[in-house]
UniProtKB/TrEMBL annotation:
Signal peptide residues on this chain, from the entry's feature table: none
PANTHER family: ATP-DEPENDENT DNA HELICASE
SUPFAM superfamilies the UniProt entry points to: DNase I-like, P-loop containing nucleoside triphosphate hydrolases
Name of this protein: Uncharacterized protein LOC109465657
Length: 390
């Protein structure tokens, strides 16, 4: 188990479970411990940058971390420094350490009377996917307690909380709006039922997915009726992009050949306005300079006289300083980036929306949380003719 927040944006956080797969040492001195995490979502950036990725594919290198501290509070206190690997054996964990985890099987010990604080039994028992995977040692019903203040607050929220609309929507009385949504789905088939249950996915004209995890020629169910699917699958595991476009926006395939760039391009027409929509996924393993070169190749092939939207998961955090090179490149080709807030559960802005051929005041973007993936859904509204907001 990781015992420190090494890189929050990359999922390397306190409490994450992994398996040791290798140790790099010179004599008695250990340089690096290589671990594989239970979730393939953790450490993607670290794996891509690892010098050990050939010998230990899929493994994250963990280095020693130095911490400075004082030995005492008195006058005799001295400052010391300790270097440790932020790892600990985790055959057994405290309830605090397993918060937020989902496990196939779990053994919960309730043998120590009085050790469960209010809410802790719920946290422990709800880690497992099914009753068949739950094992109890010394079950004690009195350990299942709730904090009265929590009950009171939940009651207040149900009665008083008013949800705010995420965006003012364009009225259709004086024109037409094109609705585009973007989501890193991390397996389309796995989350198909979630997409159907999520009311915020509709209405939409074009839904752009990245990391679909689909295979070539794989038959799928389209969760939106009367749509056409435009897909590009990666050879091998993971990746993949897909655009689902409603039939009434007359979607057609826009062929743009760029070798080694995961993308799909679709042309739609609504209210006599033609829009090109290019959906891109850049895996963390693709170096920035290589990706920028491929992106410029794509940009040179796009016509300037057609409104264009380029969006996707670029794995460049736009909230970092200095900003990534993609911004000046896109500006050079007339595109403006529309998303201004984080788009992941880790507080990073990885999902971008670039628009060309459209006024800044006629583009609206909102970011909505999703419970079934660690990326938020990015919702784009393009006002195609003069309209007012409602």
């Amino acid at each position: 188990m990781v015992t420190d927040n090494i890189d929050v944006a990359d999922g390397l956080v306190n409490g994450t479970i992994a398996t040791v797969v290798g140790i790099d040492s010179t004599g008695p001195y250990v340089h690096t411990i290589l671990v594989k995490f239970d979730s393939d979502r953790v450490g993607k950036q670290a794996i891509a940058e690892s010098q050990y990725k050939q010998a230990y594919p899929g493994a994250v290198p963990i280095k020693r971390q130095s911490v400075q501290f004082f030995t005492d509070r008195g006058r005799r206190s001295v400052q010391a420094q300790r270097a440790q690997f932020p790892l600990s054996l985790a055959w057994g964990c405290t309830i605090h350490k397993v918060q937020g985890k989902t496990l196939d099987t779990i053994v919960v010990s309730m043998e120590s009377k009085g050790c469960f604080m209010p809410g802790q039994a719920y946290v422990a028992l709800s880690r497992v996917k099914s009753l068949n995977g739950l094992y109890l040692l010394g079950f004690e019903a009195s350990a299942i307690r709730v904090n009265p203040a929590v009950l009171s607050e939940m009651s207040r929220l149900k009665q008083e909380l008013v949800l705010k609309a995420p965006l003012p929507s364009f009225t259709a009385t004086r024109g037409t709006c094109l609705s585009i949504k973007l989501l890193n789905i991390r397996s389309y088939t796995e989350h198909l039922q979630d997409l159907k249950a999520d009311r915020s996915t509709l209405p939409v004209d074009v839904f752009c997915f990245v990391e679909t995890f689909l295979q070539k020629h794989q038959q799928i169910e389209l969760f939106i009726p009367e749509t056409r699917a435009f897909r590009a699958e990666r050879i091998g595991r993971g990746g993949g992009v897909m655009n689902l476009a409603k039939q009434d926006v007359n979607p057609t395939d826009l062929h743009i050949a760029v070798q080694g760039l995961e993308h799909i391009a679709t042309t739609v027409t609504k209210a006599s306005t033609t829009v090109n929509i290019i959906n891109i996924y850049r895996p963390p393993s693709l170096p920035e300079a290589v990706f920028i070169g491929k992106l410029q190749n794509l940009l040179h092939q796009l016509p300037w006289n057609i409104m264009t939207v380029i969006l996707g998961d670029f794995n460049f955090d736009l909230l970092k300083c200095p900003p990534p090179q993609i911004l000046p490149v896109m500006r050079q080709f007339g595109f403006s980036q529309q998303v201004q807030v984080p788009t992941t559960d880790y507080g990073t802005l990885l999902d971008h929306v670039y628009v060309r051929g459209h006024g800044q005041d006629s583009v609206q973007v909102s970011v909505q949380d999703t419970y079934y993936t660690d990326h938020d859904m990015v919702c784009v509204s393009l006002m195609l003719t003069h309209q007012t907001a409602s």
